[in-house]
Amino acid sequence: MKDKYGFLQNTDIFSHITNLKYIPRWLVLAVDLILCFVAFYIAFYISSRFYSNHHDDRVFTYFQRMSIILSLQVIFFWLFHTYSGVLRYSGYVDATKLLFAVSSNIAILSLGNFLLYQVTSMLMFYYVALFIYGVIAFLLLFCLRLGVKTIYDYFTQNSGQIVPVMIYGTQSAAIGIAKMLRSSPDNKYKLVGFIDDDKNASERVIMGVKVYKLDEETIERIVVKKAKAIIVSPVKLAQINPNVDLDIFLNSNLAVLTSPPMSIWKNDMPTIKQIKSIQIEDLLDRPTIDISSDNIAKQLQSKVILITGAAGSIGSEIVRQVVKFKPSLIVLLDQAESPMHTLRLELEEQYPDQNFSPFLGDVRNKERMEYMMDMYRPDYIYHAAAYKHVPLMEDNPVESIQVNVKGTKIMSDLAVKYKVERFVMVSTDKAVNPTNVMGASKRIAEIYVQSLFRKLCASGNCTTKFITTRFGNVLGSNGSVIPHFKSQIEKGGPVTVTHPDIIRYFMTIPEACMLVLEAGTMGDGGEIFIFDMGSPVKIVNLARKMIRLAGFVPEVDIKIEFTGLRPGEKLYEELLNHKETTQPTYHPKIMIATVQTYEYDLVSPKIDELIQYSFLCKNFLTVSLMKKIVPEFLSKNSQYERLDV
Questions:
Q1: In this structure, are 624 and 526 located in the same domain?
Q2: Which domain does 184 fall in, by range?
Q3: Contact between 108 and 139 (Cβ < 8 Å)
Q4: How far is CA 289 from the centre of its chain?
Q5: SS3 for 508?
Q6: Cis peptide bond upstream of 588, omega within 30
Q7: Do the Cβ atoms of 592 and 527 come closer than 8 Å?
Q8: Quick one: residue 209, left, alpha or beta (phi over 0 = left, psi -120 to 50 = alpha)?
Q9: Which of 141, 156, 171 corresponds to the end of one domain?
């Protein structure tokens, strides 16, 4: 028996019943017909009181009239699809369908009634009965849907399933979001109002809900009581300074949501799945940096490009940017097997027509690097391979020298040997007045490539142009503060900040990598390019905003703990030291640092000696020589401070 009727389990009706998601259509139609029968009974009863013992009542029975009016009503229900909607999401469109279905039925019956009277001088229906039926039927059908919707909204809101929201903005994008909220069958948000800073827009009503004026009093007195979240339209987000203008909502513990830009909306309207919590990256005061790709394309097209550290957050993004310019081959160098495998799968899937060559190797291994350079003969090298975490390098300075200094020396020497056109080194703002081993090691790497280029030019061999780029912290990079904070918030806190006054510069990964490519094309060799990083961000404020964006209250739901500066860490980073100045370039966000220069013949033996110390695993001897090469290197909060005495 079960097998015989098992096919019924696959129908929409039974699956809806099983999942308790939707009332099946046949059941909605059956209930509608019952309500129409009730309306007909009431209408017939009232009209019969006025036309009792009428001759037509003996010709047309009660059953005949009921059968005709309900049969026609079913036809119009079918024509207007009144039973196909989900009752709990009923709205203006559903009410309109009901009105047309009932009115059409009354109109056809009235016309038939009139024609019948012209032929037989008899009436099947009293006109007053038809009118009463129409009014009562519509009211009953409408009240059914309104009642189901009201009950559903009441229970879902109380259970937290439906979130009452207001939309910030009243322009076309905001109206599009509002329409989507009203029409989506899987909606988890309920529109309770609009907010706008336009005085002309406030106090108006749009789509049946009020537009409230944006000010602190209105937010505290009305908005926080009616809504739990604010959806910022993409147009409004582009008009405001999100780092400042959204604080009024965050400080009131309202969640802030947004939708994608209008340029990528499908069918002129976003979907519920596209409504997402606004990201902390959107709230940092980081205006988008525009890069002209023409110069980059001219230099990289049809070239062999080598990217070291290709599986890291910076290296992999450089790969994704370079592939757009159609080089003949991209060589991916990294010693991390699993990340390299993941990157390879991604590239093969997204760029099947591009030639890639993953190469497992360590920049510290000169023989392996020589083999690679001889095999591929790259035209360009983007050197992103490095150890970058300050506390780890403070504990392991010899490894910092091995990778950041020796690795850079090996790659730059091979670049000269194999006549690479351009060698672009990715450095850091921590190389400026370094207070830690990592920053000092990157400064020594800068010194080596710059002095090497000067030596080559002095000897008449400027074939390879060495270019250095400096920038600060990168949003979302491996091990950066934002993913760390997100992880701590997901675990319920506490969020740990090293110091209440610590500040950092931030830049997005795509921005940083595009600037690296642009600087690499504009350089004539020997320059250190620095990027305009915008305004610095106080890390404790960053933590508070991230907690609020996650829907929690700082210091109430999630605590913030100050753990103290880590070894080698300083309160603020610099892009230049006090002896350095800048020169402008044609790009307003890229400048050239005028830095102290070094003679290759003087500094190269010291760097070789430093590398030899690192082989001996002598941490203090290694750091001591680093300080001699970089006199401005003064350790902070570190065991190596005693070497500065």
A1: yes
A2: 162-278
A3: no
A4: 18
A5: strand
A6: no
A7: yes
A8: beta
A9: 156
